[in-house]
Every structure is written in structure tokens, then in C-alpha cells.
Design brief:
single chain, 17% strand, alpha/beta
Length: 395
């Protein structure tokens, strides 16, 4: 049985993207959802539901003031809320957004990211004696594709995805080295999409290409961080640390046809538990399901299905350290804006008093699915039955 790293198996993930989108507008999901204003209340809600670990974000674009100056005032309320509510936080340090004056293809990008990681680690270390958790760069593979090939996010490049992926891996490794120079106990969760493609029914000759994609391309960022691919980047097993897998209902599709989703009713579909077992057998590292969710009325059923697959993986010996509901509070589309998307454990509704506040309304069916999952996990792993205690703080 696993030796738990976090105080709860279920993790609350707050959408914290800050990209410059396809319309060249900066998006700030923490501000849009008002989590940056109500973080203490949000954390308290999670604690009351038996969730004592969160994924949350530090906005590098707000922190970096240029010329080596860092202003962490935007994240201090998050640190204070975590202290007060006894939350263990996995800090996202780069969630698609970087300072306006930086070119991610430059050496300066690596240097400034490492400096920022170093200073934030010092801030965390000065406040708490607990082992810190970080995600240096969220979704290296996805960001390299969407920003380096599709020109959808800044730097709005095309045909430079592989180059950007290597650069992001370099930055992640440099950031981890900087953090470990402050606190060698630091743990790192590397969140990347876990996808699976199959040959189309009318194109069986693509089976070999599909398998190559699954084995090499899907795992490439983790392989770089772990030093198995392009060791000159500086990766190692210490850097790979915890494998974070992001998984949604559209993560299996027909090769070359990403809109042709392979769902659970399709015999070509691979159960999620099997995918977790395969990742664990490949790396033999702790795993966290770092993102998973669905929309609308599908949410509760999705959580039950994914939760059962996680339990199956646990019984098979996978060192699965948690499942992150992401987003745990609803979010907004990165490009069209508009109304919330209908995701998460909490829906967002405009306050009736016209105050401009987004009220959090618990999605009851998903809350019941969460209660059921917690009970099943606690029956398997006694550690999670104990009441979570806040970390020991430095005063």
C-alpha cells in the first residue's frame, strides 16, 4: 500500500491560467473567478468537504518586475489562506503565462524563470517547515503545441513546437535546481496530458504511427525531465519526481483525427486504470492525477468512473498519490470569455444583489460522488481517515 505524500487523496485544483490568448489578450483565471479575492473562503469550503490539498497558481507575469525584482504581494494572500486553513498547496509556477518582455526561446527566459523559482522557494521556506510541492511548468507538451505550433497562445509561433518543448524542459530543470538549492526536500509534480490514439477504422495502416505517438510523443516531456531523452538538458530521476497526468473525456482519439473521440463504449478504448498502470510501469515514480473533470450533468458520473479506475490502479500496486478535481470551481473559456463553462465541484452564479461577486454554488451530485470516493479511499488507505493537521509554521 502507498505511503501518502499529501493529507487527502482528493486535491482541489483552481484554474490559474494566465496566457496571452489568440486575440493577444492576457487572461487571468484567478481574477476572473475571483479566487484571488476569496481564496480563504474557497480553501475553507474545501476543508469542510474533506479536501486538504490544493493545486493553485503563482502568476509569474505579476511577480516579475524586471531587473531581478520580484513582487510577491499577489500570492501572499494564498500563502496566508493556506496557513490558516491547513492546506497543503502544490504551487503552479508557470501556467501558460510569462512576463510581457520575455521571449521564451531566449536564454534570458531560463535565467529569469530560475531566479523567480529561487525567490518564491525562499518565501515559502521562510513561512513553513512543511515539505513544499511545486509544478514548475504546467503541461510542457500542450503548451509547446498550442503556443509553438498552433500560434494560439503567446509567443504565437508556428512550426517551433519541438524547440519550445526543449526550452520549457530546460526552464523546468533550471527552476527545480534553484528550488532545491533552497530546500532539498522539495517535491515536484509534472502535469502533462495523458492521451492515447488509435488507428482510424478505415486507416489501419496508421497503427504503427499511432503506437509511435503513444510511446514516444506522449511521454516526451517526462522523458526529458527524467534524463531518458536529450540528457544534455540536465534531467534526472530526481527532477522527474512525481508524474502528474491530466486526463479528460477527450484524451483518446483516432490518430490524425483529434475530433474523432474514442469513448468508453468503443472496443479500442483503453480504461484509464490501465493507462495509469502503464505509466507507472514505465517510470516507477509516484503518480498524481493532476487534472480531471467533465461538464454539466456528466460531472458526477465522470468522477465515479475515474475514481473507480484510480482505485483499481491502487489495488494493482500503482503508487497513486491523489486525484485533482480541475477546475474545482468553474472557469471561463480562454478565448471567448462569456459565461462560466459549467465545470467543477462549484458552479459560479452572479450574486443576486448585483455586487459583481461570483457566488460559489455546490454541485450536489458531484459532491455526493466526492463523498463516496473519499469513503472508498479511506477504506483502502487508513492514513486518509485521520484529521489533517496544518503544517508547522515559522513565526
Amino acid at each position: 500500500m502507498i505511503r501518502p505524500l499529501l493529507p487527502s487523496f482528493v486535491i482541489a485544483g483552481f484554474e490559474c491560467s494566465t496566457p496571452i490568448n489568440r486575440d493577444h489578450r492576457r487572461i487571468d483565471e484567478l481574477a476572473l473567478t475571483q479566487h484571488d479575492r476569496f481564496v480563504r473562503e474557497d480553501y475553507r469550503c474545501m476543508r469542510e468537504l474533506g479536501v486538504h490539498a490544493v493545486r493553485d497558481g503563482v502568476r509569474w507575469n505579476l511577480v516579475d518586475q524586471g531587473q531581478g525584482r520580484h513582487d510577491f504581494s499577489s500570492v501572499v494572500p494564498f500563502l496566508e489562506a493556506a496557513d490558516a486553513e491547513g492546506m497543503t498547496v502544490i504551487w503552479d509556477l508557470f501556467h501558460y503565462g510569462y512576463p510581457d518582455d520575455l521571449d521564451p526561446f531566449s536564454d534570458d527566459f531560463i535565467i529569469r524563470f530560475a531566479d523567480y523559482c529561487y525567490d518564491f522557494a525562499r518565501l515559502v521556506n521562510a513561512r513553513s517547515l512543511a515539505v513544499p510541492f511545486y509544478t514548475p511548468i504546467n503541461e510542457i507538451s500542450y503548451f509547446a503545441w498550442v503556443a509553438g505550433d498552433q500560434a494560439t497562445f503567446a509567443p504565437h509561433a508556428a512550426g517551433r513546437g519541438p524547440e519550445l518543448k526543449r526550452q520549457l524542459a530546460r526552464a523546468s530543470i533550471a527552476g527545480m535546481d534553484a528550488i532545491m538549492s533552497v530546500d532539498s526536500r522539495a517535491r515536484f509534480v509534472h502535469a502533462d496530458p495523458l492521451v492515447k490514439v488509435v488507428a482510424p477504422r478505415d486507416a489501419n495502416w496508421l497503427h504503427g504511427e499511432a503506437e509511435h505517438f503513444n510511446y514516444h510523443f506522449v511521454h516526451e516531456a517526462w522523458d526529458m525531465l527524467g534524463g531518458a531523452k536529450e540528457p544534455a538538458l540536465g534531467g534526472s530521476l530526481r527532477h522527474l519526481d512525481i508524474v502528474g497526468v491530466n486526463y479528460y473525456g477527450y484524451n483518446q482519439w483516432e490518430h490524425t483525427r483529434p475530433l474523432s473521440i474514442v469513448g468508453p463504449a468503443d472496443p479500442r478504448h483503453t480504461p484509464f486504470g490501465d493507462l495509469l498502470i502503464q505509466v507507472y510501469e514505465r517510470y516507477r515514480r509516484p503518480i498524481i492525477v493532476s487534472e480531471t473533470s467533465s461538464h454539466g450533468d456528466l460531472r458526477a458520473g465522470w468522477l465515479r468512473d475515474i475514481g473507480d479506475e484510480c482505485l483499481r490502479a491502487l489495488r494493482a500496486g500503482v503508487e497513486l498519490q491523489g486525484l485533482c478535481l480541475y477546475p474545482v470551481i468553474d472557469m471561463f473559456d480562454w478565448h471567448s470569455g462569456g459565461e462560466p463553462l459549467g465545470m467543477g465541484l462549484f458552479d459560479l452564479y452572479r450574486a443576486a444583489n448585483d455586487s459583481g461577486r461570483w457566488q460559489r454554488v455546490l454541485h450536489s451530485p458531484m459532491a455526493e460522488a466526492l463523498r463516496e470516493l473519499n469513503a472508498k479511499v479511506e477504506a483502502m488507505v487508513p492514513h486518509y481517515r485521520s484529521t489533517s493537521k496544518p503544517p508547522t509554521l515559522r513565526r
